[in-house]
Description:
The protein is mostly helical and 222 residues long. Helix content is 78%, strand content 0%.
Amino acid sequence: MNLLETVRLLLFGRLSFWMMVRRQGIFPMHQSSPQSKIVLQLFAALSVVGWYPRAFDRRRKLDLQNLADDEAMLLDAHGSMRAGNPDRSWRVITQWLNARGDEAQDYAWVAARIANWDDAGCVSRLYQERVARLLMLKRTDEVLDVAVRRLASDAHFRPKSAADTLKLAQLAAQGGRLPRLSEVLLEDFAVRFKGDPRVAVAEALKRHLIAVAHAQARRKSA
Length: 222
C-alpha cells in the first residue's frame, strides 16, 4: 500500500466516525466542526487524485490493446493478399472499417498503412471507398485532396461509380478550383459508364471546361 492509499484510509476512518456521530444526533447537522469539513474536503480531493492515475492507466492499456488489434487486422489482411487471396484481404479490411462505424479517419489510417502493398487493386479499392465516404460526408476539401494525391500515385485511379466520378468532377470544376482534376475524371467517363444517363451531363461539363480553357488561353495571348 502506498502513502496515498494510507492517507486515504485514515481520512476515511475519520470521516466514517464523524458521519456516525452525526447520525446519532450528538452534533446537529448545522454544527459540523471546521475540522470535519476539512476531513471531508481532503477525502474528496484524495479520492479524485487516487482515481485519476488508475483511470489513465486503464485507458492507456485499452489504447495499447486497440492498437495491437488494429495491427493484427493489417497483418491478417496482408497475409491473405500475399497468399493470393485478395478477396479475403479486402473483406478483412472492410469488416474492420464497418465495425468501427466507417469513420473517415479510419479510412485515412488504413490507406497510409497499405500504400506500399504490392496489390495495387486493394489500395485502389480502399481509395474508391474512401472517396465515396468523404463525398457522402460532404468533406469537399478533403476528398479533392485525396483524389489529387491518389492520381499523382496512380494515373489510372477513378472513383468506383458514375455518381461519385461526376460529383467529384463537378466539385473540382466549381469556381475553377481544380479544372485539371475535373478533366482527368471526365476524359474516359463515357467509356467507363456507357449508357449511364449521367454521360450527357459529364460531356456537357467537359465541353464547358474546354471552352473556359480556350478563353483563358486567348486572354493570355492577347
